[in-house]
Design a protein that fits this description.
76% of the residues lie in helices and 0% in strands. By secondary structure, it is mostly helical.
Length: 334
């Protein structure tokens, strides 16, 4: 009975963020929200959208550097298509886990083992996360320096420190091949059902095949910073269009704090929690109207994620017929 309840609860957890978003909207002035949308000159939206192409191209180039280091042979264009498909799935899945759907498409293009391709995607995402965590630290320093008397300055550093600490421990532990292989072998031996042990063993056996040198991840890390700056610049254009009094540098360093709330894996692409965190930060620290904050976070999400995800959806329509992703989807759902 307990297992049944847990399985049913998992189906509804992704709706939690939507519930939070609905509560936020109904607790604000809906007319002010609508008016804020009409305040934006379409030129600013087009300007924000124009940064999408360089952002996507730079991130794919960064991913290609990691692919080459792992001896994964794939053209820039084919890699870009896989990236866009992964972006489509990530744009509506909890915790953006849909990015892993790059893997079966990469498998079809390269013939490399699933485990190696899984690690390749994980490394690209992790390097990108290290970049945003660094920016978050900068944002926290601003909060602590200028707003030390507010309750938020005591809560946020603790939450962020826990998130960064957990991920740092995981990275440090698994970056060493001997530790990682020992962990995965124990995991497969004792926790995987008997009928799945053989395919699971084959999957994890290739995790450390052609594992990249850490020194070779420095350039992808720097490119990760550039991509994040472009993303937050896209959103700042909307902030500027709404007339919100938030300095550019402060926004670039503070919005990552709100953005990371979107990685909580109980909501579709961060909806709800990102908006709530943004309202707390920008209404408290800069006195920006809550309706204005809600509008620029939602519109920013549409510009940076939904539009790019839709482009990935169009790409997936041409590729889905060629690639069998059913087995990989079942693996992710377990």
């Amino acid at each position: 009975m307990k297992i049944d309840i847990f399985e049913k609860a998992k189906k509804f957890l992704p709706l939690l963020g939507l519930v939070v978003l609905i509560i936020i909207i109904f607790n604000l002035d809906v007319n002010k929200i609508i008016d804020a949308f009409f305040l934006i000159n379409p030129i600013y939206i087009l300007l924000a959208l124009s940064l999408t192409i360089p952002r996507v191209l730079i991130r794919n180039y960064s991913w290609q550097l990691i692919q080459k280091e792992q001896k994964i042979k794939i053209s820039y264009f084919q890699s870009l298509k896989c990236f866009m498909i992964g972006y489509f799935y990530a744009s509506w899945t909890p915790g953006f886990i849909g990015q892993l759907m790059r893997v079966p498409y990469m498998k079809e293009k390269t013939g490399e083992p699933y485990g190696k391709l899984f690690v390749n995607t994980f490394i690209e995402v992790t390097v990108r996360q290290v970049a945003i965590y660094t920016m978050i630290v900068g944002g926290l320093l601003i909060i602590l320096d200028q707003f030390s008397d507010l309750e938020i300055t005591r809560i946020l550093p603790i939450i962020i420190a826990i998130l960064i600490g957990i991920q740092a421990i995981i990275i440090i532990y698994f970056i060493k091949k001997e530790r990682g292989e020992k962990f995965f072998n124990i995991f497969v031996k004792y926790l995987i059902p008997k009928k799945l042990k053989d395919p699971s063993s084959k999957f994890v056996d290739t995790f450390y095949k052609d594992f990249p040198r850490i020194s070779r991840l420095i350039i992808p890390l720097l490119l990760g910073f550039i991509c994040w700056i472009l993303i937050f610049s896209q959103e700042y254009i909307i902030v500027y269009a709404l007339g919100a009094n938030i300095p550019y540098l402060s926004f670039i360093l503070l919005y990552p704090v709100a953005n990371i709330a979107g990685y909580i894996p109980v909501t579709f692409a961060g909806l709800g929690f990102r908006e709530l965190t943004s309202i707390i930060i920008f209404s408290t620290l800069f006195g920006v109207g809550e309706e204005i904050v809600l509008v620029f976070t939602l519109l920013g999400f549409i510009i940076t994620d939904v539009v790019t995800g839709f482009a990935g959806f169009l790409v997936s329509l041409t590729e889905a017929r060629k690639t069998d992703v059913t087995g990989f989807k079942k693996m992710l759902s377990k």
